[in-house]
Design brief:
Layout: H1 3-9, H2 12-20, H3 22-38, H4 42-53, H5 57-71
Length: about 80
């Protein structure tokens, strides 16, 4: 089972808490995106991973938090 599926199977409250804490948010973003790149959606995940690593990654983290609230998954996963 990939980490993406594991993240999606978590209760929504746990997902939101993981994305709400700043350092944990960044680690979650990187790990889930690397897993998604490994299991198929490579190019899109690599591009988003680069944005997550850059200083603008904090903005991407907040966007992912809202996206997770609405759709129960990270953007492009």
């Amino acid at each position: 089972m990939s980490i993406v599926k594991s993240f999606k199977s978590l209760p929504r409250l746990v997902q939101i808490l993981l994305l709400l804490i700043p350092v944990v948010n960044w680690i979650t973003e990187v790990v889930v995106r690397l897993s998604a790149a490994k299991h198929g959606k490579g190019l899109a995940q690599i591009v988003v991973l680069i944005f997550a690593i850059l200083p603008t990654g904090n903005i991407l983290g907040w966007v992912d938090l809202v996206w997770c609230l609405l759709f129960n998954k990270l953007i492009l996963t």
